[in-house]
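Course exercise 7: structure representation. Students receive a sequence record and must write out the corresponding structure in token form. The form below is the worked example handed out in class, using ATP-binding protein (1003 residues). Read each field label carefully; the graders check that inputs and outputs are placed in the correct fields and that the protein name is recorded exactly as given.

STUDENT ID: A-19
EXERCISE PROTEIN: ATP-binding protein
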Amino acid sequence: MKNNLLLVFFLILFSSVYSQKPYIQYYNTDNGLPQNSVKDIIKDKYGFIWLTTENGIVRYDGNSFLVYKNFPLNSQRFTYFYGNTERDSIFTTGEFGKSLLLHNKFPKVATINKFPNFILKHHTNYLLYCSNYSYASSSGMNFYMNFKDGRYYLQENFLIYEDFHSKVEKKLSIHPIYKNTPRVFALDQLLFYIDIPSKKIRKIEKGGISDSYDVPLLTDINSKILWSQINNQIFIINKGTIYSCNYHDKQLKTSKIITLDNVKDENFISIYYDKKYKKLYLGSSIDGLQIISLSDFVSVKRPPSKPESVFYATLPYGSSSVISIFGEVYNRNGLIENKDFKNTSPYFMDYDEAGNIVTMSTNDVIIYQKSSSFKKTKSIKKVFLKDFFFDDKKYYAILKDLRNNQTPEFDGVLAVYKDQSFTHPEKKIFFRNEPTKFLPLDAENMLVGTTKSLYKISLKTNKVYTISGNELTSIRDIVRSKDGNVWITAAGKGIYLLKNGHLILMPYDADKNISSSHTILEDTNGYFWIPTNNGLYRVLESELMKYAQNKKYRVNYYKYTKDAGFNTNEFNGGSNICGNQLKNGEFVLPSLNGLVFFNPLKIKNYYPEKIYIERAMVDNKEQYFKKDLHLDQKSSRIDIFIDAPFYANSDNVVIEAKLGGSPNAKWEPIGKDRKFSISNLGYGNHILEIKMLVSDDGKFVYKKINIIIPPYFYQTLGFKIFIFSVLLLLLYLLVKWRISFLKKKNLELEGIIASRTQTLSDTVEKLVTTKEKLHKEVEQQKKLIGTITHDITTPVKFIALTAKEVLDGSNFNKQRIEKILTSIYKSSDQLYNFTLTLKEYADIYTHYRSDETEQYSLYQLIEEKKTLFNEIAEKNNTVISNQVDQSLMIQISKNILSAIVHNLMDNSVKYTQNGTITLKSKTRGEHIVLFITDTGIGMEQKKIDYYTRLQDNIDNEKLLLQKYGMGLHLVLQLLQMIGGKIIFKKNELQGTSFQLILTNKKR
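STUDENT ANSWER:
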């Protein structure tokens, strides 16, 4: 009921307005429809308009059509809508009775239908009847209609009502109700029956007639009734005029909506009126869809007998009309009076203090007298008036200077006059360029705009101050708002605010049409109405002031174009008055094709309220989604559609989007195709943010969509963790191997170092030992040399003395000579033997250091010495027995051991007669003991003690070489060199035993 009240209000309110030619949009197969027969029209709960055709169903959002067809049905032909809009449960039937369900903005084949379009009752078939759709008449065709509390079954001469609660059926006999379709319609849960014979409309409630109405349009046989139960709307088309029918206060009333030219009533088969946007949707059987905009703007043109309807300067005339420079008086219904002004300039018109109309004709001022009802005129010659105003005392005017021969450098004048004569100015201020508009700031200062600049004039001092430079040109108007702010419009430059002596340029709209602003009209709600060369704009002054304080603030201009009711989008400026505000509150604007009347307080602005993001085109394949859009990385191009049902001027739809994930992401405007395109988007969870303007004060609604693109297996976190783990493991193994390698190298180096250190230590030790030995050897040699020197002195001296005795003697006998020679011989022989032993010792000492002895047989060494002494031993009847172990291999210096054995065997051979010399060996660990035993005369115990003591302290004992000879001294010295030892032992029976204790290792 509430909706119908609003519908009645709107339709009655605009019934007188729409006599003007409406703005109609035509749609057919050439521009969006799949077929030219529009069967039914409905608006769902989400704000989308739906159409049924014979080639699918269509969704319309005010901007574009979205066609759905190719359903799994035998036919794509669909007829009427039925169901419940508020419950988002809308059905439409096809040719063979199968239904589609419109739910959640998407159609699909219905699987369950609580209200089927075909039922069987009492063995009779009934077809659902819920709209004006023309069924083909055939015998036996019956219908049923659903209501909230019950159901009607319609047959040719009666109807049956079934109550849903009581299950009681009631039968009502009526006149024949068929004329192709039943003569009934439903409104507000009531059934109305058109009784043609009685010219009455019967209201039927619960199976009985409760009231009757006289509605000639409904009973007229020339009327075509179009109704829709789901829309709860009824329309009547009669002779090209469309009416609405409403039930209010128990009355059934009709209201005229609009008259269409050259329209055949029978072609219309569906109608829907959108009361929110004031649009009428007409579906034709052959011509597609017509959308008629019912606007609060009224565009009035000159009569057909007049020239083109180009208007410039106009003046308010009365409370609801204006007068043009032609003397024609117009209100919103058209021309109402004509004063027939002649030869007037279209760019200047104003009232003087007496209410006379001042105009221009070429270079003369023409004044139409109010006292003569503007029939009589007077003129002022040679005055080119651009604008003027007056106060209680004086007239102020700006003029174009016509005396260029006198003042060629000036083109404009600000003049002050005592009266309207414009002939004797009290004051003149000249300008270098032509003035266009001026405005008093206070009693002493005035703003003057020219074709080049804006000036501030001091009327007290006559000084001219330039406010703007060359950037501000062609000033069209200077306006002071109710808040005292001064605004300037400039052709091609836009709107400026004059604040604290400085000009602040206001931002442009998206299409930069504000740059061609003509004037500013302010309504009582604080809105500025700005006509331009391309549309009419509206904006709150407070929004512009916010921008003046913060240049980052966003100003949104609301735009009105031809679909709002204009004949053209181009408004006119350049005159002294570019728009009027009438006493009845209406604004009047001149345009290139008519005068536009409107009440600014009744003009509604529209913004989209709902935004839906649930469709995408992925690589030319349509995809639907709810909250998240799932894609794969193979998708090269993605178009995400932004659906916002909006049926007013699409220029006022401000939608922006940005793809999150980047700190530099910026909001990008969405074009009229309302889609956001993405190419080659990488894997991950991307957030698409959408915002849409929903009010004049800059409020936005926001929507976020997750775009989820799964990674390939090698891009997953698990795989990366696995690879990272493998790399860590490899790194660990590499490090471990490297550490092991370095440890091994370190061990090798340590081994090498240890080996070299040991070698070096051994070398040092050897050097120390060698040093000690050399020291000992040197000491021994010193001692030996000293002993030799001491021992050799005696025989040498003896030989010398003996020789002297021979030389000095004169008496020699034979005996004496023999004695002397015998002494010399013995001394020389002793000296020879001593020297020979000394040479042998020197040879061994010289060569033993280079003796790199390899293993050799001790037995063979003894055999070699045995062979050497065997002849001497045989002469002494002595036997040498070699009992050394033949398998014994030693590594003792062969030269030294050979010398030691040689010396000891030599002594044994010398002092053994008729005896034996035995050599044996015995091994004790690393030590080898060589036993040399003879049966000779034996060594004195005194010598044994001497040599034993000498061996233990050879470094400190004095050598008795002269007394005991050189041999055993040499043996002891050589044993010390090889680390050996000798034990002297006197045999119990006869002879001496020597035990050589040797260390069997390489030196």
